[in-house]
Write a structure and sequence with these properties.
With about 70 residues, the chain is mainly β. It is about 0% helix and about 30% strand. Strands 1-2-3 form a three-stranded antiparallel sheet, with no helix packed on it. Strands 4-5 form a two-stranded antiparallel sheet. Keywords: Cytoplasm, Nucleus.
Length: about 70
């Protein structure tokens, strides 16, 4: 059996895979890094992490990254 992992950038985030901290996301709006490592001391500037309980899934994690609009 082959296990394959695929990833794509989105209009809002760039995926960074070759990094010592593992999987990272970079906001295209403010260029801030979002760390998705559960053991990280910080998840990034203006970023919060919330675990959501679910009967359907083993684990659900939501990251919220806030950016300020230029006026």
């Amino acid at each position: 059996e082959n296990q394959t992992c695929c990833s794509n950038n989105t209009p809002n985030f760039q995926l960074i895979t070759n990094h010592l901290e593992g999987l990272l996301f970079k906001s295209k709006r403010d260029r801030k890094i979002i760390v998705v490592d559960p053991k990280a001391q910080s998840y990034g500037d203006n970023t919060t992490r919330k675990e959501i309980k679910s009967d359907k899934y083993i684990q659900v994690i939501a990251y919220r990254h806030s950016t300020r609009r230029k006026t």
